[in-house]
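Why do we care about 3D structure at all? Because function follows from shape, and shape follows, mostly, from sequence. That is the central idea of this module. The next example makes it concrete: a single protein chain, its amino acid sequence, and then its structure expressed as tokens.
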Amino acid sequence: MKKRVLNFCLLGLLWSGTASSAPLTLDEAVQRALEHDPRIAEREKLVDAARAIIDEALGHRGLMISANAFIGMTTAKDGNIFEPGSNNLRRDAYDVDGLSDWEMLQFQIIKPLYTFGKIDNYARAAQGQADVKRGDLRLRRGQTMLEVKRAYFGYLTARDVRLMLEDVEKRVLGAQDMVKQWLASGDADATQADLFQLQAGEAQLRKFILQARAVEATAAQGLHLLTGLPGTEPLEIADAHIAPVSVTLADSKGLAQLQQLALQSRPESAQLEAGLRARRSLVAAKRSEAYPDVYAGVVGVVSYASQREDLKNPFLYDPFHQYGATPVLGVRWNWQGAVNSAQVANAQAELNALEEKSSFAQQGIPFEVAEAYNNFKALGETVGALNKGSDAARRWMIASYADFEAGVGEGEKVMRALQTYALNRADYLRAVNDYNMAAARLDLVTGQYP
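And the structure:
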């Protein structure tokens, strides 16, 4: 029994050791963010609210039931409409001979038959607004995707910069140790100035290392926030280093094709089209407000007072004793000419304004694509140039450091080589980050939304 328990314990330890979460890839980070971002959930709820407005507009086609029921008090009366023992009409309507309860129910059941387009136009306007809200949802998803990529690539860049600077710092510290030994033994042509030069360089390196660590920590916290990972869970990234993205839209399509793709795929284009449909429908709906509504239905009333006698005369109206219902066919018309004209003018002005905005978007979107495309292409060439410069600077650093170790180099030259390498390598890593973000931006402005 003890052996079996021990085996289970060992199995549990092995399981816990192998059950750690896998490193996070960029695609997984984006997917997690799209599932966990409360801002996306907010847009989804707004889409649901817009759908409810459509249902509300279409609901006016159904039955409309209105009722008024109350329990009240009235004066009590005995007898009928004549004075007792005569044919004279009674004149004691306002005399109080006691109190009686009074119950009444009035009701209407109405079904619209024809509204001159009011319901249909308001429903189409609501549908257009719902489509605009769906566009807002896509825009929010795209922004979240961009934020994840910014945090992901920013984390890799800061980590690579930090690791590179720490490597350079080790070389600087090693050079300092050598200078101190040489100064103590007098074996080489080292001077106190060489030591001061290296110590000053070390201070600058330490500053940049601390800055890189701060950016790295902030990017990691941003990824935790966006992907919904617990703040206490360590962040493991699948990519060992930042590298230029390999597949982009600009590799397969030219600028003109990308501009056309943007006009077809951008949420803003669909939003403008939906907004125009909504505004046109709203103008038509406001115009139809000048016409009546034709309806059919049933109206009825039930009234009773226990301390008053029912007159039972078909030619007399007794509000305290009545009941009945009848089918009706009617026309209902609420019209104020000046108000209706102003509402139509307002809706038409908003439609005209949106048409002007749509016209500008047809020009602005291609320009935005061109700007993103040109920036992406320029950064691609920049990455290539800085990569060559970084490799050359590293070879210079290694050669200078080797000469210094052999005692034939100067501390100033070594420090200058180390500094040049650090600056070139940091510029290269930042350029790669900018290039990757430019590719993400190009995807976004051409309508490649999740």
